[in-house]
Give the backbone structure.
Amino acid sequence: MIRARELFCDDWTEVWGDDQSTNGVGVVYTKPEVAAWVLDLVGYTADRKLCSLRLLDPGCGSGAFSLEAIRRLCAGIRADQTDWNEPALDLAVTAVDIDEAALQGTRAAARAILEAAGCPASRASALACHWFVRTDFLLHDWSGRTFDLIVGNPPYVRLEELPKRLLATYRNRYETATERADLYIAFFEAALALLSPDGRLAYLCANRFAKNKYGSALRQLIAERHHVRAYLNLEHTEPFTGKVAAYPAIVILDNLAGAPTAVAELADLSDDTRAAVTHALRTRHDNGAVHHFTGWHADGSPWILTRDGDAEHQDALSRLPLLEDSAPGTRVGIGVATGADRVFIRTGKPDGVENDALMPLAEADAIRNGTLANSNRWLLNPYRQDGSLRDDTDAPGLMLALREHETRLRARHCAKKTPARWYRTIDRIWPHWMTMPKLLLPDIQPGGVVAFDEGGFYPHHNVYWIASESWNLRALQTLMRSEAITRQIRTHSVQMRGGAVRCQTQTLRKLRIPSAASIPPELMRRLAVLAESNDNAAINEAANEAYALFAR
């Protein structure tokens, strides 16, 4: 999928230019025991002649993966009494990084490991220098080389945070670097192009690509040309040496089309857990923690299968309409992003601002147990009904309040693009959103947190809404609070630590629910009565009856 191979003749230092001094880009270090486990999973183990294999670590950093590989390689050399001058050793390890300071440390550590294993000092120095190379993995000219094993923890960097020239080069070179993708996506594409026919790739990486939109091109590439050997979701564990905002997974890929895929969601990374997963992957047997699937999202769709029965469950759900198709006039949306909440959102109704420029605001913190509290938060609305911006002629009080923060508002990206509209919000404000009856869901929540607003509040950007011309919204509220929906949200969204989920628009639009017309009047009334109930058993019983397939 990599475009025009001749592009690789460019020197990476020319593309980076003055930015090549940037060190530690996207650095997230892996715990040694986790790096060793990944090498076990991918098969870089003592039962193989390691000096005959070619291993690549695309972003070696402090050397968690490559140094452990060198320890295993040295143990094999001693056991086999391999000559240290064996030419195959020159190609046994390739570890690259952009950070020269980190490479100096890993080279020194590699020399020490080699010498401790009996390698002559001059040969140890030569191998360490040859194995650890400063380069940009994504821009390097690999000249047709391939690797048997590719392992590592690629950097986590939003593409838009990169220097513009570098970003343009990456986007031109890698078709998976789409949308708001992270840099590790391109690391997948580049590594898969270097994988030998019998090779394996194992990355410890963020898991968002498995379900979200920016990962769709990568999932499609994998589905068309490669095979998911294992997908281990680690989002509830800590595989890194420090606190990291990313939610991780171990992804193992190869070229064995048609082979099963091992999948697990792990709650911990204890010795026993790692041993159980390793055994299940080697024997290709389910053991409670690991499940094997004979088919794995061949169309590149989101990776949502995780346990026994999921495939049948998803097949049954597919017979039901999507949420927005469940009744005429049903829509999903998200609240306003202002770009300057401290300016546009006030606690208490501000004096002097025109009433028609003020809107009661619904924020996530005000949604509790199915109800919506009035937190006395107000949104300053700079728009007229027709979408044009207000001015001193019709809103002098509002304009005075905004001019107090003019310098800050003009510094925003959206204001720099259109200086005359310096006081606009990032998102357009639609007044009818406030007055329409709607359900409100906080973005990050444990599941089942849904409030009803009869038409008095405008949603904030961390609140999603559902409106409908045909649904009894109180009945729909009960369905949205049920386990039938929460399970679907957990399937389609990336879970946060502590078990929380994200109720984003892209997730809500994937939900399958019974059509409003299919629910008998008596059941619809019962669902409506339970809208704010704390009786979860009754909520689930009524929802299961509506779903029918859950009542089996």
